[in-house]
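FAQ

Q: What does a record look like?
A: Structure on top, sequence underneath. For example:
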């Protein structure tokens, strides 16, 4: 079995068999239990993931992670000396989280888990006061709209509240399932085991963190971002693989892999590097359960309030440059869509060459809901790919397509079952890498060059329209109304 798990090269273990994990993938051990057969299992926190993605693993799967088990046992003995922890604190935090995250974009419904929340659980009380004070925005006298807009902007700029889509749970991973390459992309979702974890209060959790000795603490901070070339980027992870470059969206400056200028510039830098090196192709994917939620509107609104015309021009130029990088890229771009792709995250897919989707993924471009016009050349490519009627339904009405529907309409090349998504992707990537690089580039040129001029012209027009909308008071009002609607649903 390959020693490349989650797409990581492991230096801590030389051989793997069955489901033995590399300790370089583990952040820490969270809990311990006995299963029905009396065997010991540990709750593992994986590097680059949060508590929603913890999984129970048998002890024999963690033979290379003894240091983490020993550290957990040491901490557990310290906890027993301090006295039992209260489960109530954990449940109260979970209840607060559930109440805050019930609201979401209307697209996160029925076929996909729905939630939208505020950045931190302990902000729930403050957020309720904030929402109450702004509950009347955009209702009643239209003459008050200007003052209401500035009131809402002030709240956004002076508070820590952030509107975002909670990481969508795609599917469950049974305990003992070996995580593989695209599990790091969130293709296998999360497990439903949170209720079995012993509650720990925030204060005691801090005390436990402070007890850790410094060398071990440094070891815990080691992550995929610090391996090979990945350390150079904040919002993406770049892996130089055998014959191809793997770019993973893993944003720190935005929620749910949404795109702001920092993220887009890092992606451009990685693509430019891949264009110049010996990579035959680029694989684009994402860490977590969401592929990409499009533009980061909170980021844009905060900057539009400073100097609307200047900032709108700057943002439009950033998007124009970002999209042109995809249009002008000469090597094949393969996309593995592990979860929801929204807005610009969906519109750039036709600019790529092959799109493989997880069965649980879905696609939506609700531009009119956001109060903006199409981007990413979707006004040209969507009608060409799926026909005018279906394209208008997506661009105007914000229709959400399942992975199978997207495949039937030509937006997606193939759809794979979540449990085998990683294997299917890697098999096909390895087949493509075996091809001659010149053949791949020339084949793409034959397919793409005829439409390149049209794409660049469309991108220019779309960005000009976006600049006009963002620089107008009506465009600002539309975005604020959308955000206010999301807040009112909390």
């Amino acid at each position: 079995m390959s020693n490349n798990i989650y797409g990581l090269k492991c230096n801590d273990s030389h051989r793997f068999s069955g489901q033995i994990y590399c300790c370089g993938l583990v952040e820490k051990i969270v809990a311990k239990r006995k299963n029905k057969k009396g065997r010991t299992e540990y709750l593992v926190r994986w590097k680059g993931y949060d508590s929603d993605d913890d999984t129970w693993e048998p002890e024999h799967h963690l033979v290379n992670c003894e240091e983490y088990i020993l550290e957990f046992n040491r901490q557990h003995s310290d906890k027993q000396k301090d006295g039992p922890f209260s489960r109530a604190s954990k449940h109260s935090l979970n209840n607060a989280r559930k109440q805050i995250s019930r609201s979401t974009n209307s697209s996160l419904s029925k076929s996909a888990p729905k939630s939208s929340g505020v950045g931190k659980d302990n902000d729930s009380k403050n957020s309720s006061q904030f929402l109450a004070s702004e509950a009347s925005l955009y209702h009643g006298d239209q003459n008050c709209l200007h003052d209401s807009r500035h009131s809402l902007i002030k709240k956004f700029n002076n508070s820590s509240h952030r509107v975002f889509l909670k990481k969508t749970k795609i599917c469950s991973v049974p305990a003992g399932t070996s995580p593989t390459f695209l599990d790091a992309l969130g293709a296998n979702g999360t497990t439903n085991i949170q209720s079995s974890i012993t509650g720990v209060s925030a204060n005691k959790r801090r005390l436990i963190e402070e007890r850790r000795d410094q060398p071990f603490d440094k070891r815990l901070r080691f992550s995929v971002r610090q391996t090979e070339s990945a350390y150079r980027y904040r919002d993406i992870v770049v892996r130089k693989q055998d014959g191809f470059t793997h770019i993973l969206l893993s944003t720190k400056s935005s929620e749910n892999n949404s795109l702001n200028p920092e993220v887009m510039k890092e992606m451009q830098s990685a693509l430019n590097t891949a264009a110049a090196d010996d990579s035959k192709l680029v694989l684009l994917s994402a860490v977590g359960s969401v592929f990409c939620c499009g533009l980061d509107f909170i980021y844009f609104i905060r900057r539009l309030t400073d100097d609307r015309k200047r900032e709108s021009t700057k943002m439009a130029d950033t998007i124009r440059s970002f999209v042109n990088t995809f249009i002008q890229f000469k090597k094949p771009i393969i996309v593995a869509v592990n979860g929801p792709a929204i807005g610009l995250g969906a519109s750039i897919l036709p600019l790529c060459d092959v799109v493989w989707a997880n069965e649980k993924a879905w696609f939506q471009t609700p531009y009119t809901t956001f109060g903006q016009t199409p981007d990413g050349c979707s006004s040209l490519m969507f009608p060409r790919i799926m026909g005018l009627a279906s394209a208008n339904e997506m661009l105007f009405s914000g229709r959400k397509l399942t992975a199978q529907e997207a495949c039937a309409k030509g937006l997606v090349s193939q759809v794979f079952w979540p449990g085998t998504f990683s294997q299917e992707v890697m098999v096909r990537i390895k087949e493509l890498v075996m091809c001659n690089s010149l053949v791949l580039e020339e084949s793409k040129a034959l397919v793409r060059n005829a439409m390149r001029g049209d794409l660049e012209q469309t991108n220019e027009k779309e960005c000009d329209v976006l600049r006009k909308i963002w620089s107008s008071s009506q465009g600002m009002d539309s975005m604020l109304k959308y955000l206010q609607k999301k807040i009112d649903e909390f």
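Q: Is there anything notable about this one?
A: The chain has a mean pLDDT of 73.
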